[in-house]
Queue: 3 jobs
Job 1
Amino acid sequence: RQGIDFLLKPDFSKITGTTVLEALGQSFFSMSLGMGCMITYGSYLRKNENMFRIGAMVSLSDITVAVLSGLAIFPAVFSFGISPTSGPELVFLTLPNVFARMSGGYVISVVFFVLLFLAAITSSVSLLEVIIAYLSEEMRITRSKAIVCTACTVAATGSLSALSMMPGSVLTIGGKNLFDLCDSLSSNLMMPLGGLFIVLFAGWVLSPRKLRDEMTSGLKYGTRVFPVIRFLIRFVIPVVIGILFASRIGLLF
């Protein structure tokens, strides 16, 4: 009961501008926005696909999985009197303690971390595709070479980031270990800036006709709602992302 209340019962007294901006930042990360992933995969869709329906399905699926995960995790965390911390600490410290106290927890923990591994790998594949598509299409490198070079680079940097989290590690820059530094740079700088540049390009550089044809699949879907979407892309979303970015770098709140 306490875990469900923690997840679903909001405490409006704790909702501030910082909270809203943190939620926006989480949405960037959760839905792979601002990093070219959606653009790359969107380019593989057929021209007659309903982009508005696909976007709604992606958003709904993301929210559904997040809520179901919370319903599975937080009741178990609270039932054993463990603090519901967030991020890597929840996954790698709190949840193992929960599994250790459960009947059959060893099997459950194995299944959980296997599924977590699969989720991480599939997410990595989607992100690697952005770099691989760029190298193969723009740099004229064969796809196999692009895959090998990208995978080796990510494996090397990822290993260093993992090693930097070990006690006494010297892999630190500016007082932060490499993992925290990469997480901070990607979440606080790169993704908001990437999202800002994308909407600015779509709203102010790309011609209205091309934007309309791409979003409406050649005037097949969403022609009535397109003017509203274009207005949001041009005037509203850049302001919101700008506020988010200013907050992330410490200029606001």
Job 2
Amino acid sequence: MLPLLTIATFLPITGGLILMALKERPARLAHGLSIGVTGLTFLISLAIWARGILPGTFAQVEELSWIPAIGAAYRLGLDGLSLPLVLLTTLLFFLSAIYSARIKERATTYVVLMLMLETASLGTFMALDGLLFYVFFEVSLVGMYFMIAGWGYEDRQRAALMFFLYTLLGSLPLLLAIIGFYLSSGTFDMRAWIDMPPLTGLAAMLALIAMMFSFAVKIPAFPVHTWLPAAHVQAPTAGSVILAGVMLKFGTYGLVRFALQMTPEAFTKAGVVILVLGVASAIYGAFAALAQTDLKKMIAYTSVNHMGYVVMGVAVAALSTDPRIRTVALDGATLQMVSHGLVTGALFFLVGMLQDRAHSRDMGDFGGLLGQVPWLGWAFIISAFASLGLPGLAHFPAEFQVFLATLNSQPWAIIAILAIVVTAGLYLRAIARVFLGEPNEKWAGMPDLDRREKLAVVPLLLLTVLVGVAPSWLIDMIHTTMASLKF
């Protein structure tokens, strides 16, 4: 049987190395190879999905000895938590490669960094060895740092440094927790850590605190979110899509895989505190977004808001004693990770396309654009309605499950529903100021989306509608694992 997980993980970086080895590397060749490699990786991820997963265990496990003296091995595997994120990752990188074909400056370096980042991202979601996970987790920082610093906007150097320092320093406590698990168990096998959590009592609580800090920075959750708006505003468009759609999920994925599954008793004891952080992130992110006039910064803050719902769902699952409520909460939280990648990815693409044309992201500079650029306008409106939680679009089934579980288990936390009202207001304001009203003659000749841009954004819009109207195919995949999760 072909080792599809390994092929999918290392195909992107292999493509990057081949590109670097070529003597002639014109931009057209670099982007053609990028689109081909990321497209093939996406197809392989569909084949992985077709092989299926198993309830209560990891499927398609691939394992080789790596550092036997310390019990570290090359281990990859999948379950209902990681498989949806793998599919999301390969899709977003493929669409980002299509969109990035417009970049001509240092195209080869840009493509190699993107392909390296895809390998690191897939490895993070599929690693079943603690040391291997940490290696992939950290390598991802390098690719994103150089993408922001090299192809971002006017203040890109400062934003890239801020991103790198925050996330690097934030991940060091995670390394300490991983070392603690190893010293207590004698292995880096994450399956062993999940089946029999190696730490108890005070040691488990200290490990949880360390992991919560690391993953809260990555999510990012209030109050360690301050690196995110600068990174998003200064990042190139594809960088923002990958950062929001994929890399923020490292934090929420780790929250479930490590914090909840490997320190379950400590997580339950700290569950109320974690729930408060989730509620605070949801409300703060919505109000902070409302205060913005820069479209990109507004969308960045809504990521804090939407990731807050994920934290809420995981915390409610830990606090509830009803298995049905636990499953509903985790199903909703995981579905929210995927829907956020689809919806926010589309929004960042669209704002980038608008900025390419107008060299501005300020809502006050526009007006009446819907008649001039209907493809861009309607795509933004659909994505905005999805982001505010409109029924029939991707966020609704995810957020509904999170709030349903919250209302049944921790009814006081339902105050976070206020954030949905605020989010609706800020997106309706953005639509009105940018796309409705009197047209601004300044933009009379603005072109609508071209074929390349439609290829990048339309698949996300179609999936946003599909997940909203018929989410069962995705929920069933997630539910396979969540219904049998032990913590």
Job 3
Amino acid sequence: MAQTSEFQIAKHLHKPLNFKLLKPLTLFFSSSSSPSSSHQQQHQQIAVTSAVSILTNQRSKSRWNTLHSLYPNGFNPTDFSQITLHLNNKPHLALHFYQWTKSKSLCHHSLSSYSTIIHILARGRLYSHAYNTIRTALLNSETETPLKLFEILVKSYRDCGSAPFVFDLLIEACLQSRKIEPSVEITRMLLSRGISPKVMTLNSLISRVCGKLGMDVGYKIYREFFRLDEEKYDFSKRGFRVVTPNVHTFNTLMLCCYQNGLMEKVEEIWDEMCEMNCDPNGYSYSLLMTVFCEGGRMRDCEKMWKEMRKKEIEPDVVSYNTIIGGFCKIGDVGKAEEFFREMGLVGIDATVSTYENLVKGYCNVEDVDSAVLVYKDMCRKDFRPDALILDMVVRLLCDRGRVEEGMEFFRSGVGKFGLVPKEKSYEALIKGLCFEGRMEDALKLQAEMVGKGFEPSSNIYEAFIGGYIRQGNEEMAEALKKEMVQTHQ
């Protein structure tokens, strides 16, 4: 802190200094008894007291100029912490003081000073500001680890009168910075002290662990952090804060299993959720039904649907898309249409996935007219179809000899939606054009295909050869045969 005399401070404040404003804070001051040390401590106390008085007694417009004029060189981290602690019941003022020191570069903050303001903000329930300050502390202290910040937060916790969720914010900040291992270690140390993070924090941690370290490690962490493998005794009698998994915990685990292709494990997690008397929600059902649909187990899927409706859990658009997609996959498009109509009756708007499922379903059963109708309806609603959907419709139209209509769909998808056609779309159209004897159109499309990076396949050569033979152009057909042999040796 700048060397400002007691006389200057008192004169500026227009009243005598009151040392009673300053409570003894052993966390920051040493107990040296030497005269020089005592004088230095006294000077620090006077300076801190004056800064607190200016902050709390002067108007907001003048306090910052006053502080800057008295302390042009700013504050050291220890003095900042002292001042901030005296503002513990004025968290917004403490926040403004912190932001002012940052904007004016008046304090080279350490983990200790960061810790103090973090606690004060947490105490005042200023969640987002506390979280952002933790992120800043981690970013600006690259040589220090998150575990060091945790250690300092623990030591200063009582003196700052903080709130337990400050550690949840630390864990979330670590996860956001992809510091997975420190997050796990911090959680373990909290649990060893009888403190558990909130279930929402644990769910985030489990999800990140599953994503980075794999489902097996994530599941072990879940069992460990919810104390599911410990002996059954009353934690509350030992002062432990008991946290139990909720439906979002199990949804997180089931989603991780599904994303890793562990379909049987999804069912195991579902059974575990039911055994722990945790009621599934609509998302839980959607996850399990997705597993059943991908395995073609539509009877099991319908059973879950009925169970969900019996529990008065209203299916959402994800649930409807899941079951519609499942029936389309096994070729029961009629059943899928029933759920599609029901979806509209209950007021749930279809999405692009809804229409894509139906188009795929009709293409799979080779009902080209229905596929075209659904595709056109999807485009009227300004949904952007996937290139795979366009490819399926074009190929089906060409197979039915409706090449010109296929060309219209092809050009519409490329021109209106900017889709990049699949190689199979070009192949189907070129074969159809060649069969109809439209060799010039086929050649133009083949040149476009090459321009997109697709090399002519043997099927393309055979289509052109067949087309030229039907036209009686044996010379061109023979030339293409030789070229095909050379190209595909």
